[in-house]
Write a structure and sequence with these properties.
This protein has one helix and 13 strands. The protein has one helix spanning about 1-20; strands at about 30-70, 70-105, 110-115, 130-140, 140-145, 150-160, 195-200, 205-210, 210-215, 220, 225-230, 240-245, 250-255.
Length: about 280
């Protein structure tokens, strides 16, 4: 009886500790989907092959041996008749890694996320560009509820802190100077913009206005205005474009051209030896 009571006490204490360790619910925030795209990368090949050989036939032969003193002479005659067949089969399947990438604008940060689509039948988050989404951040993971009310977990690839809008200075007014009491100009609403950049071959450096921002393929938020985008990769010529951005999303694809291999200069002819 005492053993049963002790076991019940231990079970109750364990249940209390587990209940106390259960994490509290997270505070969900409302964000805006700035861009969405899906990318896949070649991971390798799956190869399967088999072969089969069949041989039918018969052989016959004779041997004669003659000995003279310490030496022996052996003569062997024979023949073989038959058929041989070989068959082989196999296949090769390429394997890709698929990622669903999102750009989410929060209250104080812009998050660039990537969700690994592990199975062929799996689907990424069902969201709409310029639509709203509920999310919360836990370390380097971002959890969101899509339009189907399904929760997705994505890795945060990059965080961009938003610059707070500048506050307007107060305009002093005076009854003696009515021209100073003019109304201040209304604030301008700035539309967020992003540029999705990929290259052939991938893995090139992306520079915007001379500053490194990531590697291809990437989706990079930009401010409205004129920008110069340069794609660089060792062994290839630089690729550059100038953009005038007003808002929304823009997609760029850079086809990198290999740098020409310099020709080797001919060796100088040796001078004749003095007489």
């Amino acid at each position: 009886m005492r053993l049963i009571s002790l076991a019940a006490l231990v079970l109750a204490a364990t249940s209390c500790s587990v209940y106390a360790a259960k994490p509290t619910d997270h505070q969900w925030s409302i964000g805006k989907i700035l861009d969405e795209d899906r990318a896949r990368y070649f991971a390798g090949m799956i190869n399967n092959s088999s072969s089969q050989s069949t041989e039918n036939g018969s052989g016959s032969g004779t041997a004669n041996s003659t000995s003279y003193g310490d030496s022996t002479n052996t003569q062997i005659d024979g023949s073989y008749q038959g058929t041989r067949s070989t068959s082989s089969s196999g296949y090769s399947v390429p394997v890709y890694r698929v990622y669903d990438n999102l750009v989410i604008e929060g209250d104080d940060k812009i998050y660039i996320t990537s969700e690994h689509i592990r199975w062929r039948w799996s689907k990424g988050a069902h969201v709409a560009v310029n639509g709203t989404v509920k999310y919360y951040v836990d370390g380097r993971k971002l959890h969101l509820l899509d339009d189907d009310n399904k929760e997705h977990t994505a890795e945060i690839v990059k965080e961009i802190r938003r610059t707070p809008p500048a506050t307007e200075a107060a305009v002093p007014t005076s009854s003696n100077s009515p021209q100073i009491a003019a109304a201040a100009a209304p604030s301008v609403q700035v539309n967020p913009a992003s540029v999705a950049i990929d290259s052939t071959p991938p893995g090139a450096d992306i520079e915007i206005d001379g500053a490194f921002v990531g590697n291809t393929p990437s989706t990079v938020p930009v401010t409205p205005g004129s920008h110069e985008i340069t794609i660089k990769k060792k062994g290839f010529s630089d690729w550059a474009r100038k953009l005038s951005v007003t808002g929304g999303s823009i997609r760029l694809s850079a086809d990198l051209v290999p740098e020409p291999v310099p020709a080797l200069a001919p060796a100088p002819a040796s001078a004749p030896a003095p007489q």
